[in-house]
Every structure is written in structure tokens, then in C-alpha cells.
């Protein structure tokens, strides 16, 4: 299968400017500016009700925006009906025609456009989704994953500039979902067109997308590459929605231009300035975050062996669970109760059991800083 479009061709860019949707007094999507470049695999990620499907439907033309403009390349498509947009959508329900075989399901779009010789194109498309052998089966004779691949082939056969995917893997079991995530990624790389994928599953978004927009209450909270979002979350929502984070309330003691020294409990913590999204004047409050897998646990008796220069806090193990690849500890500390630590199961220290006094320590480079006032503000706005 050859690439259908050129990655540098901007005619497949999706550009939303000030796009918004209200239902009566309720705002489902607050004014949103967003550019999805041609050829990218973009994910809209968020919990149920955050506005991601509404955003997708406004791009498809299935929902009329209350304000703003949808551009495809340079073309303003805001007023165009769905069938006139060079966009196609794959939904969670495959919506295949049950009485038609797989070949005819995929050929449908071409036949509707009056094309007579469809064989080559349909066969190419079935090859792309690796269903060449199944062409003469009916949908009910295929697995859920195979049916979803037919739906993708059917959506791609008209060569849309953009493919929208609305929780397309939602009906599949976990193992099949994982396989299909890789499969969809391969298909997208092969055809090179823009994919915009809506999901509430953070692992799915991170596995597949080049860029993820995390949505919360009708707004994009943060947008970036998966690793960037995970390593440098800028809000507590993002820090908690993508994986797990531990938080310590701290106060700025001093800043050097490169590092911020913070007071927390009786001790000090170091945070790289570049990883702090809070205003960091002396005396200011910062919410210090660290991921559970970045932390090492050392029994308090061995505290002297911890290398210099690491952030450290003390605590007592409250709980531990062995889950095969790792052991997950919950540690109570004067600066944070329920501190989570994931330790790989290599050379486990048998003394690390509930009740043990421990030191938690980590490389300061793995620390991030958030605006402690932010959540309080969000709470006020929510309540207003
Ligand atoms: P889910 O994953 O559950 O589909 P979502 O993030 O895609 O969630 P949307 O479907 O975009 O969320 O809905 C956003 C908000 O807008 C929700 O609170 C929803 O109840 C509301 N909403 C959606 N459609 C309508 C409608 N036609 N009338 C009124 N409210 C609506």
C-alpha cells in the first residue's frame, strides 16, 4: 500500500479557531483553538463528559458549533454538511451492512459514487487492514477486531484527508484493544493521513498518538507528546489523569535560576526551575510532584548509604502489594500521607514490610512543580 497523501501537504491540517459548543446554559466545549497538522496521529483524551466527542463531531459536521470556525487546510468547512467534508468517521459500533460481504461493505462508498471498477481499490484496502483472505465472509463471521478493521477500510476507501475515530476500540476486550492499537498506528503510518482519535483510555492515547490533548470540563488542559505530558504535567488534573502522582505541599526557600529549593516539613527539596509551572518567588507555595516509579525506598537503618544530592523524605510503610513486575508500597510520611512507590522486583529488601521506617529518595530532575493555587481557583470557577 502506498502513502495516500504527502505529510508536508497542509491541505489535511485541521484548524479550529474559537470553536465552542453550548447547550442552553451549559457549555460543553469552551472556545478552543487547536491545530492538528497533516499526517499526525492526534488523540483527544479525557473522562466521560469532558467534551471530546462534541469536539470531534464539530470537525465531522455532525454538530453545529455555537461559535468559531473549522478549517481543513485553507478551506473554511464550518457551514458544510458532513458528506461534503473530506472527512470520515469510525464509530465504536462498526455499523457494517450485515447482508453484504466484507468486500461489498468496503466497496460501498465507491459504488455510491458511481464507480464501476472497484476491485483493485477494495483489494488494496483489504490488504492494508490484513483482511484479504476474509473478503467473501459476512460481518457476523468475523471477530470484533476484524469487524473494526473493515470499518476502518470502509472509511479510508474514499481517501478522506482526515479520519476521525470515536472510541473505535471501546467494544473490544483488553487483549484485542492492545493489538488493534498497534494495528491502527501501523495503518495510519502507512496511509499518512491525519487521524484524530477520541478516547478516555490514557494508555491507548499514549500508545498510539504523536500528540495528545488532555481535555477537562470542556477545555484542553494540556497538549503535547505523550512523554512530555507524562514527565512534565502542568496541572494536577493532567498529573493524575496520566498515571499516578504523589504531591507534597512546599514553600519556596530560594531560587538560583536553574534550581528552586523548597521547604517541606522539616526538610528541603530541589526542583529544576524548567519543570516548575508555578510562580516561584520566595515564600510562594508550590505543589511538588513525583511519579511513584521514580522513587527508591531505603530502610531507615541504611539511610547513610543514600548518595548525596537526592531529594529525600522519611516515612513508614503502611501497605505493600506484590504485583509481579513490581511491588507497590504505600508510605505514610509527615509531608504526604499515602505516598505511592513502585519498586521493580530486583533484589527486594525483606525488611521493607508494613511498619518499617524508610527513606524515600529520588533524583531532583524527576521532580515537577505545580501551582498550588490552581486547584483552589478551579474549584471556585466550578462552583460559580
Ligand atoms: P463520553 O466519553 O462519555 O462520550 P465526551 O467527553 O465525549 O464523553 P461529550 O459527548 O462531548 O463528552 O459531551 C460533553 C458534555 O455535553 C456532556 O456533559 C454531555 O452531557 C453534554 N451534551 C452532549 N450532547 C448534548 C446535547 N445534545 N444536549 C445537551 N447536552 C449535551
Task: Explain what you see.
- It is a single chain.
- With 384 residues, this protein is an alpha+beta fold.
- The protein folds into 2 domains: 10-236, Rossmann fold (3-Layer(aba) Sandwich), CATH 3.40.50.300; 244-383, Beta Barrel (OB fold (Dihydrolipoamide Acetyltransferase, E2P)).
- The protein contains 9 helices and 20 strands.
- The protein has helices spanning 52-60, 102-112, 119-128, 144-156, 174-191, 202-208, 226-231, 236-241, 372-383; strands spanning 14-23, 26-36, 41-45, 67-72, 75-76, 87-90, 162-166, 194-199, 211-216, 219-224, 246-255, 259-264, 267-272, 285-290, 296-299, 311-322, 326-333, 336-344, 357-362, 368-371.
- The strands form 4 sheets. A 6-stranded mixed sheet has the order 6-7-8-3-9-10, sandwiched between helices. The chain has a 5-stranded antiparallel sheet with strand order 13-12-11-14-20. A 5-stranded antiparallel sheet has the order 15-19-16-17-18, with no helix packed on it.
- Strand 7 (162-166), helix 5 and strand 8 (194-199) form a beta-alpha-beta unit.
- Helix 2 runs parallel beside helix 4 and helix 3 (119-128) crosses helix 4.
- The longest helix has 18 residues, at 174-191.
- The protein is elongated and about 80 Å long.
- Residues 1-6 and 376-384 have low confidence and may be disordered.
- Bound molecules: adenosine-5'-triphosphate.
